[in-house]
């Protein structure tokens, strides 16, 4: 009973705060609303007995929204907590598509004859996940690891103000390097 | 709490996120819409895992979804930073060179 009530309260919080992201009139409030939505979903995942995934979702998204708030202060060129904004295009079409997708998904959810549950969860779900990742699903873990590493490199390359191509030219052969401030040994 | 109710909530989150991703002009707000869609996916995958087949493979799928969210956010911030530095813009409509 308590689980059911908690689930519905969290569901309302998740959906309403998710909708508030595009409804409140400042980006700082929008990012806090999104963080609240993620926390509600994270707790719902905890209710579904996935302790590790739920906690990771909450921790990661709260940090991510904090980064997002800092990012907006840095780049948006306005006080994001105070400045009202409404920057949308094709609002009606977007609303129509979103409602259409929701109706289609709802129809699928209600009409599909879902099968009965197969098997039972492990006693320690988190330990079972760890053993799975370090055993039969090692390939998934390796792939995620490589993708993360590539993301770090690609993110730095895209975001960096100057790279080695700016210093050494497109063929990396320009010497001396083109630096705004000459320096280094012998220069 | 049943599979259907969990999936309905997930569908609502996904649809709200889709509305945001389609309608917002600011790059960061578009990213927020995508995040909300992935939020719905996490809930749906967790519901499928618990109500249909609670074996560890389903949790691995959830971990992959969370990793995808991280990658989306990191690359989105990097591209938005690049866009801002090169053109001084933060709106999708001002970076529509490839549209059409």
SSE blueprint and pairings:
The complex is a heterodimer of chains A (187) and B (100).
Chain A: H1 2-20, H2 27-47, H3 51-75, H4 91-111, H5 125-133, H6 138-159, H7 164-168
Helix pairs in contact in A: 1-2, 2-3
Chain B: H1 3-23, H2 27-51, H3 56-87
Helix pairs in contact in B: 1-2, 2-3
Please give a quick description of this structure.
The complex is a heterodimer of chains A (187) and B (100). With 187 residues, chain A is mostly helical.
Polypeptide structure, described:
The complex is a heterodimer of chains A (187) and B (100). By secondary structure, chain A is mostly helical. Chain A contains seven helices and no strands. Chain A has two domains: 1-106; 134-187, no CATH class. Helix content of chain A is 65%, strand content 0%. In chain A, helix 1 runs antiparallel to helix 2 and helix 2 (27-47) packs antiparallel against helix 3. Chain A is extended. The model of chain A has no long low-confidence stretch (mean pLDDT 85). Chain B has 100 residues and is mainly α. Chain B has three helices and no strands. Chain B has helices spanning 3-23, 27-51, 56-87. The longest helix of chain B has 32 residues, at 56-87. The N and C termini of chain B lie far apart (45 Å). Chains A and B meet through helix 1, helix 2, helix 3, helix 4 and helix 5 of A and helix 1, helix 2 and helix 3 of B.
The averaged pLDDT of chain A comes out at 85
Q: Compute the number of strand runs of chain B.
A: 0
Assign the structural class of chain A, choosing from mainly alpha, mainly beta, alpha/beta, alpha+beta, or little secondary structure. mainly alpha
Q: How is the quaternary structure best described? A: heterodimer
- Low-pLDDT residue spans of chain B: none
What spatial form of chain A do the alpha-carbon principal axes imply? extended
Keywords:
heterodimer; A: 187 residues; mainly alpha; 2 domains; 7 helices; B: 100 residues; 3 helices; elongated
